[in-house]
Each structure stands twice: as C-alpha cells, then as structure tokens.
C-alpha cells in the first residue's frame, strides 16, 4: 500500500535526521560549550561517541558476514544435492 | 542516492565501459580527506581526542545520509495504480490464452 510505504519512508528519514543532529551536536558543538552548562547533562560523556558507533559498525559487519556465510552454505548444500 | 549515473552517460560512443575512473576519483577524495586529518593531528590546534573523532563522525554522517536518501526515495516512489490494474488484466488475459493452448499456468 502506498500509505504504508510513505509512513515507513517518513520514519526512516526522521530517525536518520535525529541521529545526525544528535551526533553533530555531541561531537562538534558540545566541546566548545562551557563545562557548567546544563546541556551537558543531556549528553553522555564524549568517550561514548566513539564506542557506540564503532560497536554498531562491528555488529553490522558481523551480521552481514553471518548472513553471507549462511547463504553460501545453503547454496553449496543445494548444489551437492542436485 | 549516491547514483553512479556519471558512469553510464560519460561514454556514449559505444566505447567499452570503464569503471576505473570512478574508483580513482573516490580514492583521491579519500586521500585528500586523510591528508587533511593527518595535518590536523600534527598541527594540534584542536585537542587530540576531538581529532580522533573526526573520521568516525564522517562515517556516521555518511550512513545517515544514505538512510535519509532511502527514506526520501520511499516517500516519493510512484505507485501508478492505473498501470497496476492494466497489468492485472494483461496477466488474466495471458493466463486464459495459455490455458487454452494447454500450457500449465500454475496456481494464483
């Protein structure tokens, strides 16, 4: 259905925009703000800005390789049978 | 989307398709960015920790950009309802024709 597609597309764009603005604010703007400002309590410490993306990237790569490996194994099994 | 449209319409003389030029552009862009980053590291204008963050920030923003393009493309995808109806009619007509000729058209 067309409406479901548009809703999913809107959701994806909103998620990506929010992640982008949060991350930009975290990494680029926050280092220049004084340490006593109240905004700092809304953001995790700066080390997490490295840990979370790296962890997500590693998880994504491992999931991808698992998927590719399982597909290759299945196709080889099918070839052996036929 | 990060279209590779330049690849298809750069050579329209019938010459064989050469994907290498695009790779060279990407590699040169990456080399320029890493040179800039190493220069930042050496100059030490910004504290060290923030300079280490820059490549990660670029990768995350690239991923976000890709996701945004997918979402925008999904939202703007045309569905053509009239063509869908015509297509269903064509399918029914073809099925009837083939069934008359004795071909097994399978279930729906």
UniProtKB/TrEMBL annotation, chain A:
<dbReference type="GO" id="GO:0030234">
    <property type="term" value="F:enzyme regulator activity"/>
</dbReference>
<keyword id="KW-0472">Membrane</keyword>
<feature type="transmembrane region" description="Helical">
    <location>
        <begin position="7"/>
        <end position="29"/>
    </location>
</feature>
<comment type="pathway">
    <text>Protein modification; protein glycosylation.</text>
</comment>
<feature type="transmembrane region" description="Helical">
    <location>
        <begin position="49"/>
        <end position="73"/>
    </location>
</feature>
<keyword id="KW-0812">Transmembrane</keyword>
<dbReference type="GO" id="GO:0006506">
    <property type="term" value="P:GPI anchor biosynthetic process"/>
</dbReference>
<protein>
    <recommendedName>
        <fullName>Dolichol phosphate-mannose biosynthesis regulatory protein</fullName>
    </recommendedName>
</protein>
<dbReference type="InterPro" id="IPR009914">
    <property type="entry name" value="DPM2"/>
</dbReference>
<keyword id="KW-0256">Endoplasmic reticulum</keyword>
<comment type="subunit">
    <text>Component of the dolichol-phosphate mannose (DPM) synthase complex.</text>
</comment>
<comment type="similarity">
    <text>Belongs to the DPM2 family.</text>
</comment>
<dbReference type="Pfam" id="PF07297">
    <property type="entry name" value="DPM2"/>
</dbReference>
<dbReference type="GO" id="GO:0005789">
    <property type="term" value="C:endoplasmic reticulum membrane"/>
</dbReference>
<keyword id="KW-1133">Transmembrane helix</keyword>
<dbReference type="GO" id="GO:0180047">
    <property type="term" value="P:dolichol phosphate mannose biosynthetic process"/>
</dbReference>
<comment type="function">
    <text>Regulatory subunit of the dolichol-phosphate mannose (DPM) synthase complex; essential for the ER localization.</text>
</comment>
<dbReference type="GO" id="GO:0033185">
    <property type="term" value="C:dolichol-phosphate-mannose synthase complex"/>
</dbReference>
TrEMBL record, chain B:
<comment type="pathway">
    <text>Protein modification; protein glycosylation.</text>
</comment>
<feature type="transmembrane region" description="Helical">
    <location>
        <begin position="52"/>
        <end position="74"/>
    </location>
</feature>
<dbReference type="InterPro" id="IPR013174">
    <property type="entry name" value="DPM3"/>
</dbReference>
<comment type="similarity">
    <text>Belongs to the DPM3 family.</text>
</comment>
<comment type="subunit">
    <text>Component of the dolichol-phosphate mannose (DPM) synthase complex.</text>
</comment>
<protein>
    <recommendedName>
        <fullName>Dolichol-phosphate mannosyltransferase subunit 3</fullName>
    </recommendedName>
</protein>
<keyword id="KW-0256">Endoplasmic reticulum</keyword>
<comment type="function">
    <text>Stabilizer subunit of the dolichol-phosphate mannose (DPM) synthase complex; tethers catalytic subunit to the ER.</text>
</comment>
<keyword id="KW-1133">Transmembrane helix</keyword>
<feature type="transmembrane region" description="Helical">
    <location>
        <begin position="23"/>
        <end position="46"/>
    </location>
</feature>
<dbReference type="GO" id="GO:0005789">
    <property type="term" value="C:endoplasmic reticulum membrane"/>
</dbReference>
<dbReference type="GO" id="GO:0033185">
    <property type="term" value="C:dolichol-phosphate-mannose synthase complex"/>
</dbReference>
<dbReference type="GO" id="GO:0006506">
    <property type="term" value="P:GPI anchor biosynthetic process"/>
</dbReference>
<keyword id="KW-0812">Transmembrane</keyword>
<dbReference type="Pfam" id="PF08285">
    <property type="entry name" value="DPM3"/>
</dbReference>
<keyword id="KW-0472">Membrane</keyword>
């Amino acid at each position: 259905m067309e409406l479901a597609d548009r809703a999913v597309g809107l959701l994806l764009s909103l998620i990506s925009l929010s992640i982008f603005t949060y991350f930009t604010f975290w990494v680029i703007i926050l280092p220049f703000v004084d340490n006593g400002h109240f905004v700092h309590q809304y953001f995790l410490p700066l080390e997490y800005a490295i840990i979370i993306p790296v962890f997500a990237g590693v998880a994504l790569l491992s999931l991808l390789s698992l998927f590719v490996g399982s597909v290759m194994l299945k196709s080889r099994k099918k070839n052996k049978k036929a | 989307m990060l279209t590779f449209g330049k690849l298809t319409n750069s050579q329209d003389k019938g010459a064989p398709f050469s994907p290498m030029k695009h790779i060279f552009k990407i590699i040169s862009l990456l080399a320029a960015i890493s040179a800039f980053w190493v220069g930042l590291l050496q100059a030490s204008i910004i504290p060290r920790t923030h300079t280490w963050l820059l490549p990660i920030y670029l990768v995350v923003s690239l991923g976000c950009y890709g996701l945004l393009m997918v979402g925008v493309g999904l939202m703007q995808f045309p569905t053509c309802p009239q063509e869908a109806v015509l297509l269903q009619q064509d399918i029914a007509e073809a099925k009837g024709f083939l069934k008359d000729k004795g071909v097994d058209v399978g279930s729906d």
